[in-house]
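Supplementary notes for students who missed Thursday's class. We covered one full example, reproduced here. Read the sequence, then the structure, then the short commentary at the end.
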Amino acid sequence: MKITNVEIHHWRSVKHLEIACQDLMVLLGPNNHGKSNVLSAIGFALTTSEKPSLDDFFSKREVEDGHPDELWVELTFEGLTDQERSTFKKYVGADDKLRVRKTATLDGDKVTVRYNGWLSQPKEAWLRSDFKASKRSDLDGTGLVELVPSTGRLTKAHVEAAQQAYIEANSDTLAFDYELETGHFLGTKNVAAGTLPEWFLIPAVRDLTDETRTKSTATFGRLLMRAVREMTALDPKVREVREKLEEMVGHLNSGDERPQQLTELEQTIQAEMEDWGATLRIQVEAPDLSKVFELGTSLIVDDGVVTGAERKGNGMQRALMLALTQAWVRALRKAREAQGEGARPRSGSDTVIL
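Structure (token representation):
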């Protein structure tokens, strides 16, 4: 099967969008204008295990009273294989199309997700799925009389087979209504992985998450740690914080101001270790100030919607990655210029290759 239509509602920066798809599609537009969000919406719809976060809901949405706060992505498929027609036969209309919607509903901070399919229902009541016939006389006046067994007990399976045969033979002349089912897609609450087509997104840029971590191996982490070292050396307020931190830790380890709770805990453990003849004490170490920044710092971007940098479009991520790289190069250049001409030669290369 292939996707022939995509409809997106309240997903990230997309208020509402419908795209008729062709075999080859190219999305063109300025950076940070939603191209990546279109792709992520398709990925959301096809990844059965994915549940959106609060940031995935369109920030400027207006929810009418009595209506649920929700986002949804709907895909239309054509070109189904025989296997797919069999799997999704309940949803495949006379036009041989399959339409599936994935909806996420927000209730407070709780997000629930469900799949629903569109049902193709003939306008004739005797051809609809809710039509009931327990005896042959119930079929009088319909086109099903000649399509069910003439003898024996009439079953629901007989009626459904007759309906299907009639619809297939007369699809060109029948009129249909399309209704979004209220029950679960394929009758199951959770759609299993592999039920829908598998989705692979090959990004044009490296994931910015790798570069915005606060670890020393990431560009942002290296820039941050350099700034922390300079603050520690030059900023009197930072030095004051470090000194107060060391003073507080000193009180935790000894002296009259040591918290009674630590002393009691120490004594309790010591009593349990008495037979070992060992002395035990609880020692609190002052944390390295750089670790405070490493654990509690992230890169936030406000382009109208405040999110982490890694949640922005590929264009914005690419620009941020270049900005981080350029900032790192400038920091290296500044440090080397500060060394002066008479500085001790470096033992390694001075070259930065990008």
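Commentary. The mean pLDDT is 84. DSSP finds nine helices and eight strands in the chain. If anything here is unclear, bring it to office hours.
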